[in-house]
Each structure stands twice: as structure tokens, then as C-alpha cells.
Amino acid sequence: MPNWCSNIVEFKGDEKQIESLKDLFERMAQKEKETDQGQLPDFIAKEKGGYFFEIAWDNDYLSYQTKWSPNIAIVTELADNYQVGFVQSYSEPNMGIFGETNYDGKTLTDISLSDEDFEQITFDEENERYLFEGETYESDYEIWETLLERKKDGPENNQYIRR
Fold first, then answer.
1. CA 69 → CA 17, 75, 91, 93, distances in Å?
2. CATH number for position 29
3. CA distance 138 to 155
4. Whole-number Cα distances in Å, 125 to 31, 87, 129
5. Interhelix angle for 72-82 vs 15-35, to 10°?
6. Which strand (E) or helix (H) includes residue 22?
7. How does pLDDT run across 117-152, given as a tens digit for each residue?
């Protein structure tokens, strides 16, 4: 049984193209309910994997689950097909995966936390709180967001993939 990676995507670009994407994902969500299986658009090769599960389009955001890790390559292929960009946030805490991908149609930038980032956080079992830089937190998610924002501000930590 896989660990599930949560993904949230905001597509950016021409409203008609984004509306077409919304229609595509609404059809995929319906098909997922009917078949109880993950979905891929018809124009993406099934052997690539990266299936979408628990698909939902809420306002301007697409949310879904993937097995184990984000499906960045599949979302990029979708964006290229519809000539839009995107911002994808993803999280799979059990596997130490937390990050954000930005794509403008030419440059893909992926910023994610490393093992060293996660190791900065400790859990105080007695008080049931997370400790980070001398502060206590009820949730580690807030700490992850802080660490990711720091990486966004420090380009030496970013992973750029130019197309």
C-alpha cells in the first residue's frame, strides 16, 4: 500500500485554457468515482505513471493525491499541452517530501526540503509539541512552511530545470 502525496496546483495563464483544464479534471474525477481507479488524461502515456487520485477542483485550485511522490513531470506535460504555467505544492510527510514547483512554460523550478531540513525539527513527547530554533509549535507543518520560504529566498538551494 503506497504512502499518499497530497498535491495542490494553481494553473496560470489564459482563462479559456484553464477552463478547459477544469473540465478535463472534472471528467477525470467523475471517471475515478465510476471506476475507483486513478486517472490520467488520454494524451499522456499510461506507462509514465503519475496517476491522479481523489481529484477535486475547488475555485482556482486542483487538489489530488499521488502514490509516494508528486507527479511534476505529468503536470508539466499537461501545462505544455494547454499552454499554461502552474504552481504545485506537494507534501508526503512520512517520506520526508515537502516542496513547491513553479513552471512558467519555459523554466521549471522545484524547491523542496532536504533530510537536513527535517532533522532540524524535534518532537517533545512529554509536551506533545515540536521544537525548532528554540520555539515550540503544535504542528510541524508550520515549521516546514517556514523552512521552504527560506529556501525560496535563497536561490543557492533551488533546483532549476531549464527546458
1. 26, 13, 8, 10
2. 3.30.70.1270
3. 29
4. 44, 35, 7
5. 130
6. helix 15-35
7. 999 999 999 999 999 999 999 999 999 999 999 999
Total domains, the chain: 1
Question: For residue 11, what are the domain limits?
Answer: 4-162
Q: Which of 2, 1, 3, 23 is nearest to 11 (CA)?
A: 23
Calpha distance 139→144 (Å, rounded): 9
Grid cell at residue 37: 481507479
Residue type, 82: Y
pTM of this structure = 0.89
CA separation for the pair 154, 62 (Å, rounded) = 28
Cα 54 from Cα 78, distance rounded (Å): 18
Q: Are 152 and 100 in contact (CB under 8 A)?
A: yes
Three-state secondary structure of 139-158? CHHHHHHHHHHHHHHCHHHC
